[in-house]
Amino acid sequence: MKIGKWRRELPLHVMILPGLLLILLFSYVPMAGIMIAFQKFIPAKGLFGNQKWVGWDNFDYVMNLPNFTQVLWNTLYISSLKLILGLIVPIVVAVLLNEVKNQLLKRSVQTAIYLPYFLSWVVLGGILIDILSPSEGIVNALIKSFGLDPIFFLGSNHWFPSTLIVSDIWKNFGYGTIVYLAAITGIDPGLYEAATIDGANRWRKIWHITIPGMRMVIVLLSVLSLGQLLNAGFDQVFNLYSPQVYESGDILDTFVYRIGLLDAQYGVATAVGLFKSIVSLILISGSYFFAYRFAKYRIF
Hints:
Layout lengths: L1 H27 L10 E2 L11 E2 L3 H7 L4 H31 L4 H12 L6 H11 L6 H8 L14 H26 L3 H9 L4 H12 L1 H12 L7 H7 L5 H4 L2 H11 L3 H30 L5
Antiparallel strand pairs: 1-2
Helix pairs in contact: 2-14, 3-7, 4-7, 5-11, 10-14, 13-14
């Protein structure tokens, strides 16, 4: 019986094999480089060469940098708001789209909000730089038409974090909306019919049927997103920031880029990366525990 089951499942294991090989090659093999975090690494000597071991000195150096606390705060602030709004906005849009009865309008809106997801931040960065320009951008032209002063969205420490958060939500909420709409289609239509017979209005149906029916997907995406709390979006920030907004927009990933690649302090950069990985492991482990405790969700 077990042999027959193994034979039936063999095609599934073969299908997943390429993905496992990629994960092994790009995620597990490079873990040998963790040792760089404890070395004064010199590339000419090679990864397994006679490098000087410095213990925790790289971590002490990073923690004592005057701007590290600000960089950490920027990362947590930007990524937290991205995660929270990245869950709320798609849920709201999916629920609203589900109430649209005109299928042509519904599909048109789905397509329109989903398109930005396929564009890279290199492309979107150039678009945002143009439309948010304080001199020629269409957004500031609209602001000036109301008699207000133009806003330097990408050059002001006050406006830059908000610009990152809003533009990230605009790019990605279409994907989340499709996922939640798929979850809604799995809800038994008989529940809505029974609620109608009981006299429930549209908002009652949403609150007591639609949202609870999406609960498992919401928990799943929440659990998966918590592990990314220290990833505030390198591609986006790198393509939009400048030295004048380092105070409010510099995050751990861009910080590591400048230290590791521009300043050639490879050990220090690896130490920051290891710190991020450990914190992410703790966060995602805790999120799985709470997901099982409060929603009985298990991935295994």
